[in-house]
Amino acid sequence: MNKVMSRGTARPHPRHRPPTRQDSRRPGGAPPRNPVRGRAAAAPVPVVARPRPTDVFADRLLAVLSGRRPVHWMLRHTAGRAYDELALLAERGPLRTRGARPVVRDIGYYVPRAGALEVFARIAAGNHLRAMAFRLEQGPDHRWRCTAVELGPRPHRTPEL
Fold it and tell me: Whole-model pTM above 0.85?
């Protein structure tokens, strides 16, 4: 049997701490370095999805037709005859209600061509349900503008059971 014992020349472990050290008395590693000194570390910014133009315009038109906003608020967001149609609709106050405030319940749309959307929305106020339709077109400046607005006929009041 040939057994060689060496002492002091070869060490089985290096003098520094290995990177996979499992020591419960110390934290796992150094805290991350903050490149900005003297300020608190910035919190991560959550990514917020931009609302669709259909949702934005449905809310804007509802605000005008319910009387919460004046008609001229939509002046820069309309093109063609849409402003005149909106002014005539708002004059009659079709969505002004006593009590429950009207809200957009559902929105759907159809894309007839690139840069154009035909949108419908169901508007609920209390026990009334109305339909609103409008057309959006994207201009050369890539902004959406409303080019037509229509409102469904005045509904009959549904009897409460």
Answer: no
